[in-house]
Amino acid sequence: MYLIPIPAFADNYLWLLHNGRRALVVDPGDAEPVFRFLTQHALQLESILVTHHHADHTGGVDALRQACSANVYGPAAERMPQPYTPLRNGDTAHALGMNFQALDVPGHTAGHIAFYTRACQIDGTSKPLLFCGDTLFSGGCGRLFEGSPAQMLASLEKLAALPGDTLVCCAHEYTLSNLRFALAVEPDNADLAAYYAYCMRLREKGVPTLPTTIAQELLINPFLRTRQATIMAAARRFDASAHDNSAVFAAIRQWKNEFQ
Ligand code: ZN
Ligand code: FE
Questions:
Q1: Any residues with CB less than 8 A from the CB of 213 and at least 6 apart, and which?
Q2: Which of 17, 73, 75, 245 could make an SS bond with 93 (beta carbons 3.0 to 4.6 A apart)?
Q3: Predicted TM-score (pTM) of this structure
Q4: Alpha-carbon separation of residue 189 from 124, 129, 137, 195 (angstroms)
Q5: Ligand 2 centroid to 247 CA: how many Å?
């Protein structure tokens, strides 16, 4: 399989997975760049996976479905472009001969789902693969538009429990600004400083910082590290009432919202 982040809008990635003949695309907010890639590589679009209802993730679904007769899979609990196959937690989308398991990950939106497969053949090795939309970003997480901090924390903990070598395909290139915030929270995290320098070099060359991995995020992402003493202390400097884990998470999320 080939895993391609197709850039769209200012900072979206429309993830495309293909086997040289057939393809699936995740969260096609815009159909045009997907059509262009399919044509250039003589691919047939078989399936469309959608994580949540926001327009930058759904805007191209109708055009692609109509032109390619692709199957559309999306969250059962959100308003989606019709027709589509609604998925609940644990349901499976079949695409490219693989099974993608839907995981409920509410927080950014109320019905947000992620797609996970345990074994995808990429670059000659079998890797777990996750498409997580706007839930987990490299160095950060999605804004809480429709969910509570406790809900988002539970969703992120579900993703953090996946195998460390899981390739994490996030829907936005927010990494550098996320890492600048992460460094304000954990200025003494050496892994974080090294990862920031590494991602800076990638962006200078115009290379995506994604996919990331669960193992990498556990080292550097403050939203997956709310039980670390350094993060708890930093959260309490921002909000002295941040006692339990979800209050620590809420404080860090609020701090990020206000961070310039
Ligand atoms: Zn969104
Ligand atoms: Fe988005």
A1: 164, 165, 166, 167, 168
A2: 73
A3: 0.98
A4: 33, 27, 18, 10
A5: 25
Write out the two tokens for 135. Answer: 């839930």
Residue whose tokens read 């327009």: 55
Residues 93/47, Cβ–Cβ less than 8 Å: yes
Rounded distance from Cα 54 to ligand 1 centre (Å):
5
Classify residue 181: in a domain, yes or no.
no
State the distance from the centre of ligand 2 to the C-alpha of 86, rounded, in angstroms: 20
| Amino acid, res. 24 | L
44 C-alpha vs ligand 2 centroid, how far in Å? Answer: 25
Catalytic residues: 52, 54, 56-57, 108, 134, 172
pLDDT tens by residue, 24-78: 999 999 999 999 999 999 999 999 999 999 999 999 999 999 999 999 999 999 9
DSSP states along 82-138: SS-EEE-TT-EEEETTEEEEEEE--SSSTT-EEEEEEEEEETTEEEEEEEEETSEET
Residue 198 falls inside a structural domain: no
Q: How far is the CA of 240 from the centre of ligand 1 (A)?
A: 30
Structural domain range at position 30: 1-102+114-133
Looking up residue 33, the CATH number of its domain turns out to be 3.60.15.10
Ligand number, closest to the Cα atom of 147: 1
Q: Name the closest ligand to CA 54.
A: 1
The count of other CB atoms within 10 Å of the CB of residue 188 is 8
- 95-154 per-position pLDDT tens digit: 999 999 999 999 999 999 999 999 999 989 999 999 999 999 999 999 999 999 999 999
